[in-house]
């Protein structure tokens, strides 16, 4: 990868620094179920506070679809963020215009203001140039610290670079360096484990991956469509029969590329229904012995409905095995995706892999070898004038 600027190359003292974060944190019953995205943002925020920058945070939250909707307000997140920092986090009720200007003027250097959900304006997702310019007007420098949003060509990720210099925040920098060093020339054999609920969301990924990896393990709901394609009875399990053709194509492409495809051989089902909820014991053993053959594993998507015990058994067993082999120095391991990280944390091994990425979609596109729109903008450095 060509190089990008970081906080080391730019003076931020007494500057208005726009920081794009991914504060789209999972909140259930008003409780944060996983605060990884907040804790990963802290190095950049603390450094900017220390350097006496005026920090203006940009983020989206949920999918309000271009409409103001209190349900998707970032205001509670501002309160929450305050608990993680030594300074109060101000809040602006709009991310552009008068409200944003006013809140920024009232924030001291060394202080933080969080602007309201970017996606309350439909122009954000349209990468509208005028909207990008209105965001850019609020600051002197743009720091992208949201790798997990950088596969999207949105105004706060890409368009804003037409008006401001772009530098990488510390989390972005760490993520790019780690993925680059681990996955550019991975030690082989290389395994990918792909799980999750549906094939449709990862079809393109699977198609691209079979020519890149030595082992492809499929689990979760998405494996069902492949089982169906092979003529296996899957009862009432979640599947996408209209994708059987594509499943066949992927199976054939795996064969052509000497990629060993591993599908579930046995399953866990709920009482009284033939509905596949998790992989079974034989499948777990098969995956573990394939892992013994590998030097690198990349994992996205739990292999079962891990939120509902006992259907977390397969994912937890694999998490433990990968963590153990990593700790023994026998395996390089990378995992990414919101649910995948939640699953690793549930297994108690969230910090025992070589690297964990908070990004889901962006991580997958990276794996496919695609150029991420936000990373291209970062590499281009933005507007230096
Ligand atoms: P990530 O967030 O890590 O990218 P995904 O969102 O793709 O992962 O997949 C996680 C979801 O897949 C979980 O909600 C899990 O319950 C679901 N899932 C896993 N296995 C199955 C299955 N057999 N049937 C239905 N859903 C499943
Ligand atoms: Mg998910």
TrEMBL record:
It catalyses: (2R)-3-phosphoglycerate + ATP = (2R)-3-phospho-glyceroyl phosphate + ADP. Its EC number is 2.7.2.3. GO terms for biological process: gluconeogenesis; glycolytic process. The keyword Transferase applies. Coiled coil: none annotated. It is found in: Cytoplasm. (2R)-3-phosphoglycerate binds at residues 37, 119, 152. Pathway: Carbohydrate degradation; glycolysis; pyruvate from D-glyceraldehyde 3-phosphate: step 2/5. Keywords: ATP-binding, Cytoplasm, Glycolysis, Kinase, Nucleotide-binding, Transferase. This is Phosphoglycerate kinase. The keyword Kinase applies. ATP binds at residues 202, 307, 337-340. It is an enzyme of class 2 (transferase). It comes from the Bacteria. GO terms for cellular component: cytosol. Monomer. GO terms for molecular function: ADP binding; ATP binding; phosphoglycerate kinase activity. Its main location: cytoplasm. Substrate binds at residues 22-24, 37, 60-63, 119, 152. It comes from Candidatus Odyssella acanthamoebae. Belongs to the phosphoglycerate kinase family.
């Amino acid at each position: 990868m060509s190089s990008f600027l970081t906080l080391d190359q730019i003076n931020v003292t007494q500057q208005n620094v726009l920081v794009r974060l991914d504060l789209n944190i999972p909140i259930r019953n008003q409780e944060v179920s996983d605060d990884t995205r907040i804790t990963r943002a802290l190095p950049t925020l603390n450094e900017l506070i220390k350097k006496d920058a005026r920090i203006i945070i940009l983020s989206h939250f949920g999918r309000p679809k271009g409409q103001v909707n209190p349900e998707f307000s970032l205001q509670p997140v501002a309160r929450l963020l305050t608990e993680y920092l030594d300074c109060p986090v101000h809040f602006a009720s709009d991310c552009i215009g008068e409200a944003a200007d006013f809140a920024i003027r009232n924030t001291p250097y060394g202080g933080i203001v969080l602007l309201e959900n970017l996606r309350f304006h439909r122009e954000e997702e349209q990468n509208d140039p005028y909207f990008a310019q209105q965001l850019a007007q609020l600051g002197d420098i743009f720091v992208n610290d949201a790798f997990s949003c950088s596969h999207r060509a949105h105004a706060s990720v890409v368009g804003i670079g037409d008006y401001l210099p772009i530098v990488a925040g510390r989390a972005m920098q760490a993520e790019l360096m780690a993925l680059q060093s681990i996955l550019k020339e991975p030690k082989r054999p290389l395994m990918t484990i792909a799980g999750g609920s549906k094939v449709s969301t990862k079809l393109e990924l699977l198609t691209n991956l079979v020519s890149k990896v030595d082992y492809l393990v499929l689990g979760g709901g998405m494996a069902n469509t492949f089982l169906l394609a092979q003529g296996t009875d899957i009862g009432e399990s979640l599947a996408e029969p209209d994708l059987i053709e594509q499943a066949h194509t992927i199976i054939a492409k795996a064969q052509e590329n000497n990629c060993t495809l591993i599908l579930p051989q046995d399953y866990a089902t709920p009482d009284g229904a033939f509905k596949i909820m998790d992989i079974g014991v034989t499948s777990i053993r098969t995956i573990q012995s394939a892992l013994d053959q590998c030097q690198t594993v990349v994992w996205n998507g739990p292999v079962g409905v891990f939120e509902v015990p006992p259907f977390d058994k397969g994912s937890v067993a694999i998490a433990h095995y990968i963590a153990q082999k990593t700790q023994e120095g026998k395996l390089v391991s990378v995992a990414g995706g919101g649910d995948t990280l939640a699953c690793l944390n549930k297994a108690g091994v969230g910090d025992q892999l070589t690297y964990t990425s908070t990004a889901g979609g962006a991580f997958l596109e990276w794996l496919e070898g695609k150029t991420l729109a936000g990373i291209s903008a970062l590499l281009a450095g933005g507007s230096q004038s």
